[in-house]
Every structure is written in structure tokens, then in C-alpha cells.
Amino acid sequence: MHIATIDYTHPEAGAAFAQSLRETGFAVIINHPLDWSLIQSIYTEWLTFFKSEYKNNYRVRPEQKGGFFPTDLSETAKGETVKDLKEFFHIFPSGVFPSELSALSLNYYQQAFGLAKHLLQWIQEFTPEHIRAAYSEPLPSMIEGAEGLLRVLRYTPVATDQDYVRAAAHEDINLITILPAATAPGLQVKNAAGEWYDVPVEPNSLVINIGDMLQEASQFFYPSTTHRVVKFKDQDAQQERISMPFFLQPRGDVVLSSRYTAGEYHAERMRELKVIQDGKILL
After folding, report:
1. Are strands 26-30 and 5-7 parallel, antiparallel or unpaired?
2. Which of 124, 163, 181, 236 is most buried, most CB within 10 Å of its CB?
């Protein structure tokens, strides 16, 4: 399975990007406009947060937007019974945010949202006309008035010298995901034959992948590819992994297909992920 590496500054980058997404659901982008030193500083800040006691002051509640999800509130991938071994924080511009942290993450949110809009425009432009005609509205207009989700994750140390699945096989829910290189390797994708491949990630690169909502809107032209996160047996058992995906989401009223609006699809997937407290969906 070959995931293309795209130079963001190349004149043919948009076409190559869309082609890679069509073939694999994934692409790796280099020479992009996101600030790598900013990303590294954010990783350092959040590692301190996750190791603190004050993180529990921000434990997510049904009445609030965003917040801290400890391991006991972590997701259970569709079809799985065991929760992923991770803790994370959801960041929205209108949501809760730790007063102990700087504004670096919020600054990055704006950068990532701007890049995501541009990548979505590339997908719109290089989608074949017969597929594009089925969109209920142009892809860039689907995110007008919507908030993206910035998730900062800490995959906790694993006390084993064997390969270990940190995040079970799953597909993303949203339109597209932007994922900067994490602090440790481990991202894998599955091909049609069921074989797992490591995603080639170098420092200062971005992994982009299609989510279920864009798969649905494109009538499965763009595949939402199954992926997972593993700890390899030759990695230090105590090595943590900080990761920061940005999920670009449409408005809830956007019609994805004759089967779903974005809001309906999101609610269905949240029930499958079992992230529910007091009868309310937390994600």
C-alpha cells in the first residue's frame, strides 16, 4: 500500500493530493504552512498537563463543550469491547480550556482550520464532475458556521515488550483529519487484503486522511480507511506518545446523502463509540 508524499508547494500538489486520497484514503504532506516549532511546544505543554493533578479539574461534563477525557472515558472502537489506552482533551474555540496553559494550542487551531479549508478546496476542485454533482453543496460551504475539533492525546506507557495496540482499528467520523507527526511512531493503515502498513511519517510532516462523512458524501469515491495506533515491541515500554489530530467537521444540518445529515451520522457514531455519560453524548 503506497501512501503518496505530497510537496504542498508543488504546482500539481492539489491533483496529486486528491489522487492519493482516492487510492488510499491517506496522504502525507511536506513543506506545509503549519509551524513545526509551535507544534513541538504544544506537545511539551500538554505532556505536563497530562502528568498533572489539575487535569482532573477539567474532566468533561455533559453540559460543557470540550474538556478532559481520562482513560475511563476513552473511546471503544466500533466492534470492539475494550477501551483504547489513552487520555485526551477536546479543544473548541467556544469550549473549556485549561487556564494553566498558554494560547499556543488555540493559535494552532486557527492555523490548522485554515489549512484544512484549503485542502478541502483541493478535494472539491479535483473530484470528478459526476461525483461532485452529488454533493448537496460544495465541500467548502459545508464547514461554514461549523467548528473543527482539535484533540490532544496522550497514549500512556505500556508495560509490555511485545507489540501492543494502543488505539484499536477504526475509521474517523469527520470530513478530513490533519495529523502532525506524533512524538513516537505507531500509526498503521489497513489495505483491502487486511494487511497493516506503517504510515511513513517524518518530523514536520502531516498525515491527512478521509473521514466517514466525506466517504458518505462522495458516494464512497473517497475511502475512509481503517487505521490504528500500535506500540512496537522494540519501543521503550515506558515511552509515551503525544498526538494532535485536527478533525474538520461540517455543520450538523449538512446533507451527506439520502441516508444521513451530518448531525444524524455523528449521533449514530457516538452511540457506537460508547462515550456516553448520564445519557448524554460527550464527544
Report:
1. parallel
2. 181
